[in-house]
Design a protein that fits this description.
Chain lengths: ~350, ~280, ~450, ~260
């Protein structure tokens, strides 16, 4: 893989130059949290961000978007007006999340709505330093080798920049003059030191390796009932989780003519009507069953299906659930094995 | 995008009539013949049927791929989409996409005996299997067809199945829980009672397929197990809520299983070892 | 909707007033050619808001009171905020004041556009509704809708929703608008000025019936500067008097009447009028710019005798508000960097105190009075514009009835042709509508002690 | 095809829900062209009262006259749709319901010799008198939600309103969670549909869309208690807009809480 250097003070100029390719997004402070916001004004960029409220999935399958417009029975897919976008500041764990979504959406029965957005979204990764809610080291998602177009590694006054795709290479060429190509011995040393230091910064460890078995054994554990009593069914956990893909469909028409659109919105298995079928039968009526499904799906089913858990250790659920139901507490409760 | 799995394909309703009180038969075909010839699917698979402005819902295919060019459905009026479908007349156009789901493992059935057990609406997908095996009669061993309905008036495809009774290469048994007409010529009793008529079953060489209302499964499967048929040779179809049919929307998830892709046909072994399946 | 009470032989009755907010009906009794009794009956259900706010925090009360009426919800919110802030000694920051003014303009534009063009105008051109007018007046109706939409946009940007937004509250705003949003409003306002002027002309060229003309007393708030405006702490009266708003009780003298769930007001035992027409009569001379020119072009002595000019006054106020938005936004944008903090809600109101706050709602002067004890509301009194206008509406209907009957030689009512009856009824309705009554507002407000 | 006949009615309320319809300036012609609007007192004067396919009602029931009207309306109407929290739940004016203080409050406001035009009573939702087919909550309703459902209803489809809580839409807007900042936010127990307007402006949800389909009040209560709020304080907030529906839900909670 090609590796380059970019002086830190050149970052804004570089990002600015990328506008020739597409809209530029990056971490922006919102209150005390961060979001990926449009960088019409680069002074808003805040590279010290930890996790954003919503993950990059919001660009690839927005919370609400049209899939088709129709009249009578002619359907036209809405794939044309998707803009080119550059998202800067994506942390390694989240890129792992993207790789999971890629598998999910692009392998069996490729989803064109996701695919087209993915193709038109350049992912510019950025190294990070964990806080007490990150546990990417436990999930082994704290480094990433693929899934990005460029990846920036922050080393004091410059970035090491990995070029991860041919698009990434094109993007570099937009301002090649800002980059340096000769990586020296001392850069390597610098990088290794940084890695060691950064690895030592992980304070939270959540071990997921034994989860499939533990979950199986805990199928009827009272832990689920306790969690179910507490859960607000607000669905926030699913919204913020980088690997939650579930959605709902609804057709919208105009009052006076037969034209409309088929809209797709994020859904959550935490909601009561998620598994409700015609005739009123609900396969997961109780909240405890829903909480159990959520965690079973992330920590067990994905391992069966894709060989690894669908948790990337980003800590968003820890940061989000008002009643403290999250991978950390659930795993702890299950291992505590009541 | 050439292949958009979500894009409904317009199909015309060519025939439409009531099978029973609240279940209607729909025969549809693509607008163009070229496309009709390409239709390909397996018994046990389903299609997503779209009504613009109303929504989409999954329905099992009831026709057999051995009689190409057409798709047939048996649809029960239970909710929003089905109600609107019932309002449609012949020659109107609906959106259809698919086929989805695993379907029955026809190849594994080859040279084997087959017991097809049906309750109520389960006749819709299993008719596809039955007709397929009859159309390819020489590829399969003996075929037993067991169908139980509550009353004669509630038996789907009654006339069609009655006519099949005359076939010598098919052991067809039809039963009703109660005969309220006084003119019923077939059996009366639960479908499980028909099992005593199954003779000389070679369990290792037999597949059983079951589809019907949830209450029926337990009892029917008990009977099949009594015959000694291995759990992985007992197949059943399951239902869940679905909005995509292609393992994306998440509504049909059970543990690690997406009913729409890994099912809707499951073996009894799957059902036993995967929690929450039924 | 109303009970189908039989119309008596000596009555003209309009069973359900259309194209007004809320429920009202009119009965006029005539005896031997003389109008004996005029009643604007208000059967609107009481909701007892004054008692609902007791025991709540000022913030909660500020969320509750706008629900009195959707059409002037922003004014209710603003009046409540002013009352609470005056009672608890809060000083609004300049940024907060500017955003509140902008929000208030939004309501004026929306409410006036809805009333003047969609509810009142159809009468003058002989249609049952604005939608029905589309056949012949499509460009005008579309312009009216554009203006109304713009008013809504301004409220949405400043207050989070068209109706019952929660963003403006005691102490400031939850979130200030962005540069882009404000700039967009400015941009659109500039564009709409020409449309607004055209609508003023449209209304100016209508023919105004005169049968109800009679002298009226007007009242409105006196803006603190020598300009036109919609807030103030003093009240101007067309008799030449001026009073502080603290004297709102003596100015309005609310009383209960049998035929209405809304109370009634008088000043010095005379009906008086508040609203756009009152403001024009008292402050119109202060208008500058195109609104000022329009005022000069339109104003005549009839304005002090004929309530129907209220519609035209509203149109001029739309123009006034539109003209002021760009300069207001320019001045906000000057300090956009700190707008967010400058307009942010100050501390939670926990103090003790009592006071009145007033704003000009689209329909006239609106007083809110609260008593707060350690952060909990213990007393409330609200005086609503429509309540203040009811007596005047009845007076004008009485004058019109007398004159119209005289025109047809005081025929007994039973002898009126259907057309004659319809014509009379239309005038009654036009009178009521010209006040832009907001009936659900008017119903619930009286003092709780 | 005959257009469906619809009527828009207003009982005791602020008319904000009907105003919301009139505020759909861009779709207004659509709204009036898609159906035959036979009665809409607030917007037109050529109203006739006859058989209806759909009646939309905004406002709560507070007088005998309104009650009679509902009984007259129901038999001639195929579908009755409640617009807004007043008709769905009783509205803000129902916040003190079932405390037995109505008459006292009424007398305080109107004195001993009140009006005679109508006989008033404590605010009730429409379904306290007649069966209601669909509910579109909100104070006021959301315009997009109305237009979506209006089109559905005209086509003969049932209404479709969100059953999820405000938090869902709140997260879509990427707001900082106010509950986590110890504010008393009713988002988790309030029905979505408003596009999380308040939390998006740093203001806690005050519950104007009424209870969500599945409100875990017990958990919300204990969470808020941990954060230092008292039961009466929380109850007061929930009563503001939750109307009779929340009040029913507390009753059982009260019992539990007192244990
Ligand atoms: C694989 C499969 C095969 C099926 N085959 C048939 C068949 O051959 N004949 C038949 O009559 N029915 C069949 N069903 C059930 C059929 O899909 C539902 O009856 C139908 O979705 C009801 O839709 P509705 O809008 O009328 O009901 P509503 O209850 O109004 O549906 C509301 C929404 O829920 C979803 N939904 C509700 N129930 C189900 C359900 N059981 N499965 C999936 N989604 C649901 C729908 O997508 C719809 O959007 C099958 C279901 C599955 C999963
Ligand atoms: S687990 Fe937490 S975040 Fe998820 S639905 Fe329940 S309460 Fe909400
Ligand atoms: S701020 Fe309120 S609505 Fe938003 S997520 Fe938090 S609790 Fe839910
Ligand atoms: S956030 Fe809550 S109070 Fe605010 S508009 Fe939405 S539902 Fe109403």
């Amino acid at each position: 893989m090609k590796v380059l250097k970019l002086k830190k003070h050149n970052l804004n100029d570089y990002l600015d130059s990328l506008r020739v390719w597409g809209e530029v997004y990056g971490p922006v402070k919102q209150g005390e949290k961060y979001i990926y916001g449009q960088l019409d004004d680069l002074s808003k960029l805040d590279t010290k961000m930890l996790r954003t409220i919503l993950p990059v999935k919001k660009f690839l399958m927005p919370p609400k978007f049209n899939t088709f417009t129709f009249d009578e029975n002619k359907y036209k897919a809405e794939l044309e007006n998707i803009p080119n976008r550059i998202v800067f500041g994506v942390h390694p764990c989240e890129i792992h999340g993207l790789l999971i979504l890629d598998k999910f959406f692009l392998e069996r029965f490729p989803d064109p709505f996701y695919g087209e957005r993915r193709r038109k979204t350049a992912i510019l990764g950025l190294s990070c330093v964990p806080d007490d809610k990150c546990f990417a080291k436990s999930t082994n998602t704290h480094y990433v080798e693929s899934g990005f177009d460029l990846a920036f590694n922050d080393l004091d006054n410059y970035y090491l920049v990995w070029v991860g795709s041919s698009l990434g290479d094109d993007l570099v060429r937009i301002r090649l003059d800002l980059f340096e190509e000769d990586i020296k011995e001392k850069d390597l040393k610098h990088y290794m030191e940084w890695r060691n230091w950064r690895d030592s910064q992980y304070k939270l460890n959540v071990n997921l390796t034994a989860m499939p078995d533990i979950m199986e054994l805990n199928y009827s554990s009272p832990v689920w009932d306790e969690l179910g009593d507490k859960c607000l069914s607000c669905g926030a956990c699913s919204m913020v989780c980088p690997t939650c893909p579930c959605y709902n469909m609804s057709d919208q028409i105009r009052p006076s003519q037969f034209t409309g659109k088929r809209e797709r919105t994020w859904d959550s298995c935490m909601f009561k009507q998620f598994a409700l079928v015609a005739g009123g039968h609900n396969f997961r009526e109780a909240r405890s069953q829903r909480v159990r499904l959520w965690y079973t799906h992330k920590l067990k089913a994905f391992i069966t299906e894709f060989g690894k858990a669908a948790c990337i250790g980003c800590g968003r659920c820890i940061d989000t659930c008002p009643v403290d139901i999250n991978v950390k507490t659930v795993v702890k409760a299950l291992k505590g094995g009541k | 995008m050439a292949n958009n799995v979500y894009l409904p394909e317009p199909m015309r309703i060519v025939r439409r009539y009531d099978l029973i009180d609240d279940v209607r038969f729909f025969q549809v075909r693509p607008l163009e013949m070229e496309r009709a010839l390409q239709l390909n699917y397996l018994p046990g698979q389903f299609m997503m049927v779209s009504l613009a402005g109303v929504g989409e819902a999954p329905f099992s295919i009831s026709s057999t791929p051995s009689r190409p060019g057409l798709l047939e459905f048996g649809i029960r009026k239970v909710g929003i989409i089905t109600e609107e479908l019932f309002k449609l007349k012949e020659n109107e156009v609906i959106g259809v996409r698919g086929p989805f789901g695993n379907g029955f493992p026809i190849d594994k059935f080859e040279k084997k005996d087959l017991i097809i057990v049906v309750g109520g609406l389960g006749a819709v997908p299993l008719r596809s299997l039955l007709l397929y095996t009859l159309d390819n009669r020489d590829r399969f061993g003996r075929i037993f067809f067991l169908y139980g309905a509550r009353r004669p008036a509630e038996m789907l495809f009654r006339r069609e199945f009655m006519e099949l009774k005359s076939r010598e290469d098919l052991h067809s048994m039809l039963t009703v829980d109660k005969d309220d007409t006084g003119r019923w010529t077939e059996q009366v009793g639960l479908v499980t009672a028909l099992f005593k008529n199954l003779k000389d079953i070679d369990p290792q060489n037999t597949y059983a397929t079951v589809c019907g209302p949830p209450v029926m499964y337990k009892f029917v499967i008990d009977e099949i197990i009594k015959l000694g048929i291995p759990k992985h040779q007992i197949l059943m179809t399951l239902e869940r809520r679905m909005h995509c049919g292609v393992g994306k929307c998440g509504h049909c998830v059970i543990g690690s299983i997406y009913t729409c892709m890994d099912g809707p046909v499951f073996s009894y072994w799957d059902v036993m070892h995967m929690k929450d399946l039924i | 909707m109303e009970k189908s009470t039989k119309v008596k032989f000596n009555q003209i009755r309009i069973p359900a007033l259309a194209r007004v907010e809320g429920h009202g009906n009119i009965t006029v009794e005539v005896l031997k050619g003389k109008v004996k009794d005029v009643k604007l009956n208000i059967p609107e259900g009481p909701r007892l808001f004054e008692s609902l706010v007791i025991g709540k925090t000022p913030e909660e009360a500020t969320s509750i009171v706008p629900r009195i009426c959707a059409i002037c919800s922003v004014s209710h919110r603003y009046a409540a905020i002013r009352a609470f802030e005056r009672a608890l000694n809060y000083k609004e920051t300049k940024a907060t004041h500017q955003l509140r003014t902008l929000m208030h303009y939004g309501e004026m534009i929306e409410s006036h556009a809805l009333h003047a063009f969609a509810l009142a105008l159809p009468d003058f051109v002989g249609y049952p509704s604005a939608i029905a007018m589309v056949d012949k007046f499509a460009p005008q109706i579309l312009k009216a809708l554009k203006l109304k939409k713009f008013g809504n946009l301004v409220m949405e940007v400043t207050n989070a929703r068209w109706t019952h937004g929660e963003n403006a509250t005691v102490g400031g705003f939850g979130l200030a608008p962005t540069h882009k949003q404000l700039f967009d409003i400015k941009w659109q306002a500039q564009e709409l000025i020409a449309d607004a002027e055209e609508m003023v002309e449209l209304l100016r060229n209508l023919s105004y019936p005169t049968s109800m003309e009679d002298g009226i007393v007007f009242m409105c708030l006196k803006p603190p500067t020598d300009q036109y405006g919609f807030v103030g702490d003093r009240v101007l009266i067309s008799t030449g008097e001026e009073h502080p708003i603290e004297k709102y009780k003596e100015l309005s003298n609310e009383r209960v009447v049998e035929h209405s769930t809304s109370k009634r007001c008088r000043y010095n035992d005379r009906p008086y009028v508040v609203g756009a027409l009152a403001r024009m009569n008292l402050l119109g001379e202060r208008l500058r710019g195109r609104a000022g020119e329009c005022f000069k072009r339109c104003y005549s002595l009839s304005w002090i005798r004929n309530p129907l000019y209220g519609n035209l006054a509203q149109a001029i106020e739309i123009l006034y508000s539109l003209e002021h938005i760009p300069q207001l936004i320019d001045s906000i944008l000057k300090k956009i960097k700190t707008l967010e903090t400058d307009a942010k809600i100050q501390k939670q109101p926990t103090g003790t105190g009592k006071n009145v706050g007033a704003v000009e709602a689209p329909r006239g002067t609106l007083y809110h009075y609260y008593e707060v004890n350690r952060g909990i509301v213990t007393g409330a009194n609200l005086v609503i514009p429509t309540t203040q206008n009811f007596d005047s509406m009845e007076t004008h209907i009485r004058v019109a009835a007398q004159n119209l009957l005289a025109n047809i030689e005081n025929k007994p009512l039973a002898a009126l042709t259907a057309q004659e009856r319809k014509d009379i009824e239309l005038i009654f309705e036009m009178i009521v509508r010209s006040y832009d009554p907001c009936i659900s507002c008017s119903v619930h407000m009286v003092e709780v002690k | 095809m005959n257009k469906p006949k619809v009527g828009f009615y207003n009982l005791s309320g602020c008319s904000g829900c009907l105003l919301t319809i009139l505020n759909c300036e861009n779709q207004l012609l659509d709204v009036f062209n898609g159906a035959e609007v036979v009665s809409f007192l607030m917007a037109q004067s050529n109203n006739v009262e006859k058989e209806l396919d759909i009646a939309f009602i905004d406002g709560s029931v507070t007088t005998d006259e309104q009650e009679e009207f509902l009984h007259e309306l129901r038999p001639r109407t195929k579908k009755v749709v409640c617009l807004g929290s007043c008709s769905c739940y009783g509205g803000v004016q129902a916040m003190e319901n079932e405390k037995g203080t109505w008459l006292k409050r009424f007398n305080k406001v109107y004195g001993k010799k009140p009006f005679k035009v109508v006989k008033p009573f404590e605010s009730k939702p429409v379904d306290a008198f007649i069966p209601v087919d669909y509910y579109l909550p909100g104070c006021p309703i959301d315009a997009d939600q109305f237009l979506y459902n209006y089109a559905r209803l005209l086509r003969g489809l049932p209404a479709d309103v969100p059953k999820t809580p405000v938090c869902l839409e709140c997260k879509w807007h990427e707001n900082e969670c106010l509950l986590l900042k110890d504010k008393l936010c009713l988002g988790p127990v309030t029905s979505a549909g408003c596009k999380a307007k308040c939390p998006s402006h740093n203001l806690p949800c005050i519950g104007c869309f009424g209870p969500a389909d599945e409100s875990n009040l017990t958990s919300e209560f204990s969470l808020l208690k941990e954060k230092g709020y008292t039961f009466p304080e929380i109850e007061r907030k929930l009563r503001l807009f939750g109307g009779v529906k929340f009040i029913k839900q507390f009753k059982s909670l009260w019992k539990k809480a007192q244990k």
